[in-house]
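Can't paste images in this forum, so I'm doing it all in text. The chain is below; anyone willing to post the predicted structure tokens underneath?
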Amino acid sequence: MANSYVIIKDAPKIDYMNDFAALPKNYGTWDYFNREDVKAIRETVFAALDDLNEKTHFTDELASYKQILIKPNLVFVYNNVGLDKKSYPENTDPRVFEAVVSYIKKYTDKITIVESAGKPYPTKIAFKAAGYDRIAEYYNTGLVAMELEPVVRYYLPKAEVMKEVYLPKVLEQVVNGEAFYISVPKMKTNLYTGVTLGFKNAMGTIPYFLRERNHNYHIDKKLADLLYLFKPSLTVIDGIIGGEGNTPSPVDPVKVGKIVASNNSVEADRVTTYMMGFDPDKNKLMIEATKRNFGDNQVQIIGDTTVTPFRPAIASLFDEKTAREFPNLLAVAGHNLPGAPKVTDPNLVTPEMALQIEQACAGGCLASVKFGMDFYNHKSSMKGENLKVCVIEGPGIEINGERYWFDKNGKPYTKEDLKNLPMKKYGMGNCTLATTDDICFWKATGCCDPAKCASLICFAGGTLLPIVSPTNPWLIPTGLGVIDMIVERAISTLKGEPCDAPMLSNNDRIFELPKLSEEDMKKDFIPAKMPHLSMIERVKQAGLQTYLLLCALPVNLNKKYGTGGHNH
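Text version of the structure:
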């Protein structure tokens, strides 16, 4: 008998292209709720949840929980931010999210909307930009920006990568079984993990500096490890208007017209990945979750799984599309990591081998650089031919005492060759800068810092990242929001209640657990004491919050924050 169910509901075939990113001004009025699209979405969400409830009776449990925590995906709200189109379907459709809140409200009043947007975008601004603050006001729910929450700490003995976790205190209730957690993601592709759905949505539950740890070739293991600590009780995937392309950059709309609901986030993601036209058995994130036994091979799937093909995210600088759009860019890769071929003769590297070398670390800085470059497709004033730069990926592969990097054709370059190129060099990540700092003009520190990588690649082309340029009407509110966020986080840290994990210079390090008993090593997680912070350490950690103001600006920070990294 199945314990897990995935329900797929088709929405009526009407136009849903209005207000998929942000609520209109008349939200909450009769005119709004009487709109054909709003009524159709609500009916579809309610039908999916009713069918799931018939199988699992989850509504019978709701009243027994202290809180119902509902998390959307608001990594960024691309609505009226100065790009070529007014809106892009990046965030969870507020019409879908509102319908989920409305449904749960029938059974309990103890609802809190929780989120932490993409660093350094303040969640309070995301709530306002998408209209989620008005949803909270209309239904009288709580509204929590989790980057402002003091954190609690856990050890994960069974984890491969994420052995130490800091979590906003509001989610401690989920870990303790006192809160019912609902994940409401958008159906979309993603540069780092191929797709971003139910349990990838958990990246927005961990604090900023912890997100950067192992945000590289370990990212799939890291996210799967987090399932040992907590997982959604209910997942509702917004597939009304999907998003295809290079998330977290703006994505293009895909008219899917479906809602997916499940009591197993891994199986919801597996089915949805298939419905997007991708093989879930080849998706690394799904492979890692399955390997840890978080799936259910007895799952019952109810509904139409017809495929609507999505354009995949391409986390590479060696692809033909990049060559067409950026004719003056040269990318060279030199990684010596798991997944990279062993090179003993630099003159025998084929294009296929060069791509393998590059893709050995596709889950970090590489994807983040592509994230920044993708804005050139969404802002007509940005010209790809203006990006005249050599992007260096990795510390180089050492062969007979010399380090080599390879372009997409397999052509080898020594450090001296790169130095003599008639273009400025962009050092991609700490590992690259560890061996090329002296020849790089642009220095994207971190392992990985997505905002820094994206911002610098735009500035290398002579422009600002569009979302931090004067053409963005939200620039001043967002800038003030960042300052307000920094102040709140700094004050909390000075009080001895930090809102984040410690900031590290080497984010590739896998945390070593302290000596644990044999019994503890068998547990999924163990509550851990927060590290004691002296007043000097509090002041230092509080001061580091200013980094959130700088990370999206074209400022080289490697001298201040270190250049430690992987594979060198």
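Residues 557-568 have pLDDT under 50 and may be disordered. The radius of gyration is 23 Å.
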